[in-house]
Design a protein that fits this description.
The structure is a homodimer.
Chain A lengths: L1 H19 L11 H17 L3 E6 L6 E6 L7 E7 L19 E3 L2 E3 L7 H18 L5 E7 L9 H7 L1 H4 L3 E4 L12 E2 L1 E2 L1 E10 L5 E2 L10 H10 L22 H8 L5 H8 L12 H6 L3 E10 L8 E2 L2 E10 L5 H15 L5 E10 L2 E2 L5 H14 L7 E2 L4 H10 L3 E4 L14 E3 H17 L1
Parallel strand pairs in A: 3-6, 3-7, 7-18, 9-17
Antiparallel strand pairs in A: 1-2, 2-6, 4-5, 5-19, 8-18, 9-16, 10-14, 10-15, 11-13, 12-14
Amino acid sequence: MKQEINLHKNEFLEELMEFLRIPSISALLEYKNEVNRGAEWLKASLIKAGLENAEVIETDGHPIVYADWLHAEGQQTVLVYGHYDVQPADPLELWDTSPFDPVIRDEKIFARGATDDKGQLFIHLKAVELLMEKHGTLPVNIKFCIEGEEEIASPNLAPFIHEQTDKLAADTVLISDTSFIEKGLPAICTSLRGALALELQLETANTDLHSGSYGGGVPNAVHSLVRLLNSFHNEKGEVAVENFYKGVPELTDELREEVGNIPFDEEKTKRELGLDALYGEEGFSFQERTGIRPTLEINGIGGGFQGEGLKTIVPSKSEAKISCRLVGDQDPQEIYRLIEKHIEVNTPVGSRVSLNQLVHANPVSIDSTHPDLQKAADAYEKVYGVRPLFPKEGGSIPIVEVFARVLGAPVVLMGFGLNSENLHAPNEHFHIENFTNGIETVCEYLQSL
Amino acid sequence: MKQEINLHKNEFLEELMEFLRIPSISALLEYKNEVNRGAEWLKASLIKAGLENAEVIETDGHPIVYADWLHAEGQQTVLVYGHYDVQPADPLELWDTSPFDPVIRDEKIFARGATDDKGQLFIHLKAVELLMEKHGTLPVNIKFCIEGEEEIASPNLAPFIHEQTDKLAADTVLISDTSFIEKGLPAICTSLRGALALELQLETANTDLHSGSYGGGVPNAVHSLVRLLNSFHNEKGEVAVENFYKGVPELTDELREEVGNIPFDEEKTKRELGLDALYGEEGFSFQERTGIRPTLEINGIGGGFQGEGLKTIVPSKSEAKISCRLVGDQDPQEIYRLIEKHIEVNTPVGSRVSLNQLVHANPVSIDSTHPDLQKAADAYEKVYGVRPLFPKEGGSIPIVEVFARVLGAPVVLMGFGLNSENLHAPNEHFHIENFTNGIETVCEYLQSL
């Protein structure tokens, strides 16, 4: 297929750039119309690829886009999942070029969503399109189920999957929304951390107060928040919420070896990211901390006067966003209750805290010896000349666990991104080489099933 | 004068509202023209009051407005100081009416700057105007020196005072920029806390990172800031910066009694401000904590994602604004060095901190037995029917210490505000009764000198 891909490369990239120009930010209400536009664009593109029964399915949130081609009688059915929504783009001032005006530089395409997940998702559309063009048919039955709410934790896809088990029934679920170990070294992820996210608002008074007249004599909403948030970790970098680690798998020598096999270049990572030092739970390696250990991270904080110059107030309000990554048998709802209790116990006197749960997702594990995963590894090897590794990924794709459980099918996490591609950050990009090689790999894989 | 004041009341209020409509926010660069407009308006108003030699004097920052009347041969010279600049108005959403569109409600005038300090300053202009109108002359020589940078700690007034000691020479400095104990109970402040303000920026990486891929394995700029800021206070509510309390006067029984004599209604304060509890340094009363003890307050904090919804990042940048109130022999520059050292020692591994000093001011004490202060007390007593108290104020008016030291004159802090008037906060207002009684009190005072 290499030849066909090269022939179409510029045309495919033009189309992908069109997709990336749509600011389909699911988290921000004011982008609702753009998310809808993304869904319609995707539907048209699926039809162009040769898929049938394409529809934009409304939900209580953003729509799901579905299409299929089911004429490979007696053959396996593959369900392709992906998402057309993207993360917010701020801080805008740190982007070298506009996030929704894609540009190609150094054989990379720069835009919000380039690697997460529009670029990776588009690989599957183009693989199907090329196979159809070349053979007039497909080697397998295929279904596309693409959502617009992955970046806000898929609140409407899970119920949809539960309701539409017949429509979605498949032998394999195929997803490209993960990363290589490093450039040239592909990976099939076999574990995803679960997630829990919440926001917290703290209040001490009904108005900000003059720090001269009241300073030193009344609670300060930023002091209280700082004290409360600081209580979430101890000096060893461990999460200090009582019973937080219940359900976390014991770190056996075998697991430690498996995780240790995934290469990690500490000096390179520090250099590239501008880190003076790594940091985390004492007694664990970077791969363990980010792959198989749970975390609690503050994602944002705000309170008091943040403008230019000076405002000598005692702040009356503050807030924080917190998210956890969970592993093993940690249950997000139970962790939420533990955090709630921790906050109750640790909130300083004179502060009122309100809590709001944003998302929750269970951790998931996939058996790397399953034939569908091994065939995926073969396809990578043919294209990239190297057999992929089976790492345990630190991120969460909440819906993977639901697909695996409800459809009872193995999930093949056939990623084509790189961790260095600034996903969720300014200057997100996608390597064009992995876009074209990705199309070839997916073609190989579908033909091998 | 009561009669004359009543005759002119509506006209004076109209003029004050005109003054309040000018958003002369000194802290925000984009308001530079408005600050200039405030200065020109004030100059015209001083001329209207009968003052001479009125000028708008340019500085490296915002202008100083000067005017005088020096024909009371053989009489004392009084220098009136005030400021025509105001605090920023945010958070705008908490104002019931627009901050720069003054309205009168329940015999109060609502606007940013109503009490701090345009309303209080305007009392002096109108007192002079009425005395001139009635007698065609003034009982004392008078100079007005009004600045536009008080809310940013007077960076250009101090050098001006040093350079213009002849121009500003006076027997008494008269300032109305402080508050009553409570409605109906006036106060002449005899102590002001010094101040030191700084901003702090913390960085861990050159970009925000995905909390799935990196969470738990790299430093988090919000965690680091939270840990660092939490180290500034201990469990007793004391400032934990080494040697911070050096130079703080010992709390003698006499001082404790003096401070304790100033009435304070804890339940009323809590109810009015929506406080569940008071909080501060262990072993001290509210009056002591806010009047004669030093403080370190975080005025604002920010970092990571603060938008609507969720963004699962490990933040790479965070920042905070901090200010101290200082007492006794605490030297702001020395305190800055102690804080710098504290930050050096307490910054978590993997975090880089940069520091920027915003303002500094020395504490000041004024002798309440000085005849000029006693005459001021007499004037209050005549108008309000009650002798004022001599409290030690928690706020800072940095220039007071400079006036006292450079001009060698007693400073009479003849305030007409109320602490409940939301200075530096939304819905700032000024009681019209204190505006009119204030004019009468100042007339009485000037005539008594």
